[in-house]
Amino acid sequence: MFESVGALTGSPWIYAVVALSxxxxxxxxxxxxxxxxxxxxxxxxAGSTTAAGATGQVAHQVPDILALMVCATTASVLGDLVAxxxxxxxxxxxxxAIARSRRLTSAQERLGTALGRGGGILVVxxxxxxxxxxxxxxxxxxxxxxxxxxxxWSALAGMAWAGYSVGLGYFGGQWLGATWLAAAVSVLALFGxxxxxxxxxxxPARVPVTP
Length: 211
Hints:
Shape: elongated
Oligomer: single chain
Strand content: under 5%
């Protein structure tokens, strides 16, 4: 796997591929954007370690970890905003689709309440859940939440997700090298965070008891 990715990670095109994958997976959650980010970060960590051991200098043919994180974060926010604006503009077909979806309807209700009281941490948690990013971005747009309420939380969610994914790949590559074990451990950790986020989102909101 890393041999085939090596040519791509040694090219500036890696940033374009990562950005495109992250932008599009808000519409196609089956795209493995997280796996791609982890793979690029793992290859970068393993490549820099190999080069440093051989020459005492870090190779320039591997992605820059900070640039990779900025790229993934920016693409995440951009994808969220595109989905948000499309849902905002809506249309009868989209409104009917949302009305038929229990997940989107529930997301509209919970997100509206959360953002209204400054509790947009739901947006951050949903970024890690399978399809959670799509549900929240479309739900916020369809509910016509103000962009100043949604955008800061979207940016925080993008930074948290990108930092976690890049960190998994980088430290996995540092500790275990460019091996299948490193990739498997990092991807399992990403899926584990997604499963936990999904459980948190599905938990029913607590209704305050009026004395």
